[in-house]
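Predict the assembly for these six chains.
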Amino acid sequence: MGFPFDTGATFRVGARFGPAAIRSMSVALRPYNPHFRIDLFKYCSAVDYGDLPTVPGAIEESNRRATAALTPLVRAGVVPIVLGGDHSISLPELRAIAEVHGPVALVHYDAHTDTYDEYFGQRYTHGTTFRRAIEEGLIDTEHSVQLGQRGSLYGERDWQYSRDAGLEIIPWEDVVAQGRAAVAERVKARVGQTKAFFSFDVDFVDPAYAPGTGTIEIGGPTSAEALDLVRRIEGLNFVAFDVVEVIPMLDPSQTTAALAANIAYEFMTFVALQKRRAAAVTK
Amino acid sequence: MGFPFDTGATFRVGARFGPAAIRSMSVALRPYNPHFRIDLFKYCSAVDYGDLPTVPGAIEESNRRATAALTPLVRAGVVPIVLGGDHSISLPELRAIAEVHGPVALVHYDAHTDTYDEYFGQRYTHGTTFRRAIEEGLIDTEHSVQLGQRGSLYGERDWQYSRDAGLEIIPWEDVVAQGRAAVAERVKARVGQTKAFFSFDVDFVDPAYAPGTGTIEIGGPTSAEALDLVRRIEGLNFVAFDVVEVIPMLDPSQTTAALAANIAYEFMTFVALQKRRAAAVTK
Amino acid sequence: MGFPFDTGATFRVGARFGPAAIRSMSVALRPYNPHFRIDLFKYCSAVDYGDLPTVPGAIEESNRRATAALTPLVRAGVVPIVLGGDHSISLPELRAIAEVHGPVALVHYDAHTDTYDEYFGQRYTHGTTFRRAIEEGLIDTEHSVQLGQRGSLYGERDWQYSRDAGLEIIPWEDVVAQGRAAVAERVKARVGQTKAFFSFDVDFVDPAYAPGTGTIEIGGPTSAEALDLVRRIEGLNFVAFDVVEVIPMLDPSQTTAALAANIAYEFMTFVALQKRRAAAVTK
Amino acid sequence: MGFPFDTGATFRVGARFGPAAIRSMSVALRPYNPHFRIDLFKYCSAVDYGDLPTVPGAIEESNRRATAALTPLVRAGVVPIVLGGDHSISLPELRAIAEVHGPVALVHYDAHTDTYDEYFGQRYTHGTTFRRAIEEGLIDTEHSVQLGQRGSLYGERDWQYSRDAGLEIIPWEDVVAQGRAAVAERVKARVGQTKAFFSFDVDFVDPAYAPGTGTIEIGGPTSAEALDLVRRIEGLNFVAFDVVEVIPMLDPSQTTAALAANIAYEFMTFVALQKRRAAAVTK
Amino acid sequence: MGFPFDTGATFRVGARFGPAAIRSMSVALRPYNPHFRIDLFKYCSAVDYGDLPTVPGAIEESNRRATAALTPLVRAGVVPIVLGGDHSISLPELRAIAEVHGPVALVHYDAHTDTYDEYFGQRYTHGTTFRRAIEEGLIDTEHSVQLGQRGSLYGERDWQYSRDAGLEIIPWEDVVAQGRAAVAERVKARVGQTKAFFSFDVDFVDPAYAPGTGTIEIGGPTSAEALDLVRRIEGLNFVAFDVVEVIPMLDPSQTTAALAANIAYEFMTFVALQKRRAAAVTK
Amino acid sequence: MGFPFDTGATFRVGARFGPAAIRSMSVALRPYNPHFRIDLFKYCSAVDYGDLPTVPGAIEESNRRATAALTPLVRAGVVPIVLGGDHSISLPELRAIAEVHGPVALVHYDAHTDTYDEYFGQRYTHGTTFRRAIEEGLIDTEHSVQLGQRGSLYGERDWQYSRDAGLEIIPWEDVVAQGRAAVAERVKARVGQTKAFFSFDVDFVDPAYAPGTGTIEIGGPTSAEALDLVRRIEGLNFVAFDVVEVIPMLDPSQTTAALAANIAYEFMTFVALQKRRAAAVTK
């Protein structure tokens, strides 16, 4: 489902058109994922649920409406894959998820932590999402991890809030130093089989691979590295996903939209694999 | 001065970068306006005051800050020419202007009336600006006029609010039917020498001439016609101006920014001509 | 409904993505048309039927599939408004229309006649559409008219085929010379109340207003003039419409898509007005 | 022939790629001009001579090389149609032309006079071309005219140099006031049958029609008006032409290149008509 | 030579303008290849042969014409380097090549196998090229290899056709796992000194490096890795080359065209090295 | 400070707008550099000095003016970080630097050596900068290094001038072969504590990461590799820096401008670290 909203953006804006762009490029996807050797629709059914209700310019009202629309779906057992929209949308998603599942582990791939207390004096923005979510008790911080942070900061304590709250931060420099395999193991060990939410900000990837986003940070992973880091943590117990911050007006060749569509496709593969495992167990 | 804000936008977004784009194209302007045969800086001094303080994502807070910053300038006798920004910015401007000058006549060139009561349930958006301004008593409606409206409406009574409030609406079809000269005379007659505020939305012009804006309406004036309709009402008693809704990401050849820069230049010419007249009278 | 096909294009290509782009910009349209003072959905119901089936790269096969899909709809009394796609799509549309209604009058606004015998030796292209349609007896040529032709030709007899076939051609130079009102009267007089098909190629309009199309011809009408020429012939007995040749990749500010959406909106208005008239008569 | 040079540009730059872009769009032109009812190649032969030799970054050296390459062609009776390149290229062209034909009448369609004495202290730029040409005695000023000037100036005497030198300036406002027919007669009367050079700067046209150029001035003619003003002066004794200032990087839909290609096509038509007249006289 | 054709494209389209774009960026190439320490034109001569004849919209007819035009060149000993155009062009090329040389080994760098049986029911598309070529006996499958395949598939047997036909597929994941050096040795060992055809689809490279193409697949090689994989197989007995699927409208900074020009340059280097080796042997 | 000049460019042009674009993206930078764990403004003060005076189209005059403006700043102890502008700007910078500091070591990251003797017969271009600087004795060649060269050359001796002059060239292929750590040690060992000038051409980076530049060379470093190679040589005695060749018109998503802003940020970090070290020593 789409979440066409960008009032949470503090710099370059336009992610309200992100869902449409991702859908547009998703038509080139095919049902069989050769990496995991699985035909997705043999194991799960998927539906484009359309867009969640939003109010451009009004973040708190949009959050309320989206949570209200999403909660019954989650309650009905749907595993939502939400297409953003700026990163502020993860908060109303988490409210719906936690309402049904209780606090969940956060797996957060992003160049930023999005745990600032406020931006321009505002408490609800795309840079404060996970601070609010932690304060509201939506996240099981002990099993949560933020991965890929890089770029300049406001100060040396920027990452401290997450750490004090119990999250683990694995900055991109650490991924490079330790290797993707080792880091993926750390993530898997930490999250375990806790119910988890996977939030993927396309600025996690280097801007060469995802130019169409607001707050680019150079020196990040290639799309191959990003895909690898996603695939390596397959097997966790994800109950919801999002992929956010696609701005089509900054994406002249639609490469960012294609990247996001592929990430969503891997997410759908995760669900199919869960279903296949569940089916195998049942037998 | 710039007003880099676009949280009021209900459709295509990005006018927060409008002021920078307009300034960028303004470097090609030269000091002598041959139409009015005047060397601007012989009669007035101008300064780029920088940008008004704004908070992306928070329209009411931005409005407060901008009004607070603008009011002392207006009080000091500055005639502000504000570069937007989406059209919601006219409200905080009008608050500052009315605080000093009392209610002013509105001269509003735009494809839309921007007098809806709400958008998506929100009272502060770029489509409700002048409704709020009228409700707050900032506009001397009897001497005010809206010119250039066209395009599809929500219903037959869309324009009625303005009319009931005492404004005159001259839709673009009427301009075409009556001719620019006659219409300009109507505007001048109506406004008289009331203190006035000129608000120019670039979507007044046909999208061929101003592609870089959010809510385009086809079938509008050429830039030549728009310029003519601006120049013809010179002589009114303007105390403030704005030119709004430039979205650089939708303006690949910077033609919309150039148009806006030229409109601001005509506004500056109006000020110079006022000063010249005042100087002549003094002598 | 969309007709996402562009294999008929002989120069710049990409109109297969035209329908999606037109839909995307159509969200800014509102239900009340102030020119005709009518609330569309009070008089007619409309549905986005999705896209007709096509086969990229295979024009004859696409034509067959589209005609097969469209015919039952026409038979059921639907008045189709087709969003192209290159101009070759009018042929399969006309086959469906004529199957139900018999030969229809053609009202064709375009910079070109599209009546060449072949292009690069091919009989089915976007430049041969109406020749084929005439040969197949789909068009009531005596009541048909082509309007707006301009630009360089292959030879002095390029327009002769249409004339020999009984169509009237009103080149753009004649429209300028005679005036839009007079020309519109000629069109109305010629078509009368014959069942008619309105085909609007966006290259009818000057490329300043419709840059996102394949075969641009400078020196054409503004969007205001084009809109006027559409509106002036309201009252004819249209049974089908299309608006074609939008290429989003050449339309960076989506102005061409907006133009096409507005033309389709006028077409929908025509249907609503027909219904209102029919309802009035019934009473 | 192309003249891929832009070191004379004082603002937006990139016209060195103009000739390639114009050629690219010229493939859509066809041999018969219906306005003048002539098949061009029945009366004249044309060849793409390739590009004149230039040295990026070195204006005086480029001028020398281009004049040296062009002079023998002019001497051999070729009527050159030069595709620019920034407007500084007209100077080396005029040197070659005057070398063979003596001083020629200048017919100059442009938003600017290009007769400044210097820019940033430089004597050879795209804004000083015709001042240098006059100083060098290359122009028969008594039979020359500059048409279409508009936009802000450095001072009230900007246009005085041309007038003092004996040229006639017809600013765009005068064209609007007097009408295109009357103005064209003035041009024809003034030039008479003097050998003439037609220089067409694409910024003559409004930026909606020619966004891909460096120094845009809003409020100019449509492409239809421009084309009309070109066609109306057919019959003069042109010995050379250029069309200049196309910048492809600012021309995302190639509309400016198409406009320039069409202007060059009209120039070629002028040559064909001259030949036809000459042939008729001979018989 | 160019092969400006894109009717075989099933998704994003416009490769008909690919050859012009590649040529445009090729002007920045210089004659000495420092990797192979060779001055190309000391050992081989090269000519831009222009474009092969094509018919937009008609794939089988285009194939016929192109094969007819290419065969005599191949027969005359020319080693063609063809600039595409969509990947359907390799089929008519292979027909010409096999006509002269008999079946050749295929070295195919691509994100896809292009061995589907049909697309939308069509047998001739850019996704079925090599199936047709194998069926027609144009490829010596035992010495052939496809390298770089990745992305989602229609089903688990998508790659089976190639394998059943005797080709080797080395998906991109295998290249990553085994290393480029080892994989290049596999390719060289397999092809040996069989006469070979090198077909390089720019979507082989990650879309960050080649955004200007139709069917992008994320997670691919960098341009450095791609270049390395090309250079490492130097020494094979190539008799023809192509580089395909460049779509300029999706390539705003011309980086894809530059990539393709460089790949063609490496191909030309291969020819020069062959000639140098042959000359050395002769002595 | 900016150096908005591009007359030295021999191919794609427009770097005169580079400084504005880099500043525009620099607003997303924050004061704390986590890699070096330093809050920049605790140790150094920085000011945007505006643009150096230039004359478009006149390289030698621009050089003179820029050197004249820069020299007093360098003399006053300012460590300039210059934002280009094409690479010709390093020459006037070096003249100012050497005037104060004497010949300096050059650390030059670039795909090209820029040590050609002339381009199109011109001695002052962006491809001859460092030849002129060496000839003028501005560079301490024994302690200088050029890193990252790749792409085709004019001949095998292209790199010989640098080597004969005493510079070390480390082509990109050598960096790949030897590893970044080893290469960085070579650079540090060679430069030692000689006063040094760091010149970073954005075409050093692969065009996927820096599309917005004139002379792209494929197969280069990622932005992560580039950043690493910059950071690894921290500790040298830099007295001036520049980052050059950003062309905004070729940078649709502003990724190149963001890269350049980040490189300048690392340069500023170098200065802050120097100051911190100096402060520590003082205590």
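The first helix of chain D runs from residue 18 to 26. The mean pLDDT of chain D is 97.
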